[in-house]
Amino acid sequence: MISRTEALTELLEGWLPQQRWFPAKGRDTRLVPVSVTPCDLGQGLHGEFRLFRLASGGAVEPVVLQVPLLFSPHTGGTDPAGPLHAGFIGTIPGDMAGEEWDVFDGPKRREFVEAVLSLMAGDGILRTGRGSGVVGRTAAGGRTFLETLTRPLSLESIRGEQSNSSVIANPGPGGTILKFFRTLFPGRNPEVELGEALTRLGTQDVPSTVGWLQAEWGEDRGTVRTDLAVTHEFLPGGRDAWAAAVLSAAEGSSFARQAHAIGQGTARIHRRLAEGLPAASAGDAQGVLDRLAERIRESWAQARAVVGPYDVQIERLLASLTTVPTHPQRIHGDLHLGQILSVDSPAGAGDRWIFLDFEGEPLRPAVERSLPDLPLRDVVGLLRSFDYAAGAAHRQAPDAVVPGGWVADCSEAFLEGYSSVVPGRIDQRSPLFMALWLDKALYEVRYEQNNRPEWLEIPALAARSALEELSGPEVKGNP
Ligand SMILES: Nc1ncnc2c1ncn2[C@@H]1O[C@H](COP(=O)(O)OP(=O)(O)O)[C@@H](O)[C@H]1O
Ligand SMILES: O=P(O)(O)O[C@H]1O[C@H](CO)[C@@H](O[C@H]2O[C@H](CO)[C@@H](O)[C@H](O)[C@H]2O)[C@H](O)[C@H]1O
Fold first, then answer.
1. Ligand 1 pocket list (CB less than 6 A)
2. Which end of the chain has less Cβ packing within 10 Å, N or C?
3. Which residues does 69 contact at the CB level (< 8 Å), separation at least 6?
4. Nearest atom within ligand 2 for CA of residue 361
5. Domain locations in the chain?
6. Residue 267 φ/ψ, nearest 5 degrees
7. Distance 328 CA to ligand 1 centre (A)
8. CATH class label, 239-469
9. C-alpha of residue 416 to centroid of ligand 2, in Å
10. What's the gap in Å between 441 CA and the centre of ligand 2?
11. First vs last C-alpha separation in the chain
């Protein structure tokens, strides 16, 4: 007879590859346990925060997967796909003869979510005695917020393609949205670190961070700590800026007013992050430039076959990147229209634009996502997104005639909005701007190659146009 642990591992090895967020789709991987932190959920239910590494071909990979689980004594007979069984994974034998447990995905179960939020609210600690454990924390004002949540919670899962597992507890005003990070890396998750800082600084451009959960476990090189989950205030009725922009492009209506407000919000966030987090050093600035050049080379090796023979232009652009940029700071890092919602402002004063998901680009190495970078990278991210929205409008509605100046109008309005908060001219012909633009477009080519090949032509076309512009005698403009 196989043990409970063996049965669970076998069950999860079948279930995990079917999950959207599983990072090793299509590869033959095995689970290697990292730590298990149990959690009593009351009413005969048992919770576990399980962390695993993936091994393939004999090698253990650095990334750690979070698999929060709820165990309930097997009752049998009812339909596991029914609403009472949300998140059902399977049934395994217990350690005692005749005992059986139903296993569930923790983020889908009310009792598990309640336990996580209580851990956060009480700055709670769960320890295993083997140097691993889970610790709850609250941000400014978070404890009161969590204590006033109406219980029992009512849960609603987030629909759509997500790279993490988010669940809304009490959808509506006063509710919270809890995100479990699925792939973990040592150190702070930028989403938690930056969200906590922005909340402390009182910015209205992001939902307040309420609390978070950290894990720690022992390794040969010492104790590793990382963030497991974060909860934010839930802002109901959010309208996706990406969907609104694509619709506006397809209808031929102006999106300039919205782009202006998004520019102002972007600039306010940059100003807060510059004020509220440690300043970067001169070494950081050189590092930013080095990493930018390195990334363009790396992406080019993969994107060249799709974009075209522009090696000379790439080398020319890299050679022109000589001026070390001033003032690197923490930024969003993966800013695009899909990360922005508009919600009604409390005083009925029109739209309030909120910026989400400060985790950085999923294809970027985790250590790089927490380094200072250039605010101009976020600016470029949004300018690329207006271009993407026009491309998507053509794709979604082949008869749509997107007005010729639509992208330029959005870009101009966005830059005006940005500079009304952070004064200064952004020179779109400078080598630095062009390098960041190309870096983003090449990143997008790689992203679409991996995820949505049918969208590939949108960034490929943008990269080609930028490289064509570089075919002239020299790259002009100021850095
Ligand atoms: N605080 C919030 N209030 C309302 N909706 C939110 C909030 N945070 C996230 N969402 C919704 O959840 C979606 C996924 O959130 P996101 O942080 O981007 O998750 P992921 O990291 O999994 O991509 C968003 O696109 C948005 O629709
Ligand atoms: O939202 P994520 O952090 O997962 O970002 C990744 O996926 C995005 C696609 O969902 C991708 O964004 C690209 O497509 C968007 C439209 O779907 C568009 O708004 C962006 O401008 C474009 O870059 C993003 O690059 C990637 O990191």
1. 158, 162-164, 166, 177, 179, 207, 232, 234-235, 238, 341, 356-357, 359
2. N
3. 47, 48, 50, 89, 103, 104, 105, 106
4. 27
5. 4-10+30-76+86-233, 239-469
6. -65, -40
7. 27
8. alpha beta
9. 24
10. 11
11. 68
Residues 6+ apart with CB under 8 A from 459: 384, 388, 441, 442, 444, 445, 447, 448
* Mean pLDDT, residues 349-355: 88
Please state the rounded mean pLDDT for residues 312-329. Answer: 91
User: E strands along 193-277, which residues?
Assistant: 209-219, 222-233, 239-240
Report the separation in Å between the CA atom of 356 and the middle of ligand 1, taken as the mean of its atom positions: 6
**Nearest CA owner, ligand 1 atom 14:** 162
478: its two tokens: 């100021």
The model's pTM is: 0.93
Q: Report ipTM for this prediction.
A: 0.97
Res 475 pLDDT > 50 = no
Residue closest via CA to ligand 1's atom 15 equals 357
Sheet containing strand 209-219, edge to edge, reads 125-127, 133-138, 209-219, 222-233, 176-180, 165-169, 155-157
Of all protein residues, whose CA lies closest to atom 23 belonging to ligand 1? 162
> What's the rounded mean pLDDT across residues 232-238?
96
CA 306 to centroid of ligand 1, rounded, Å: 32
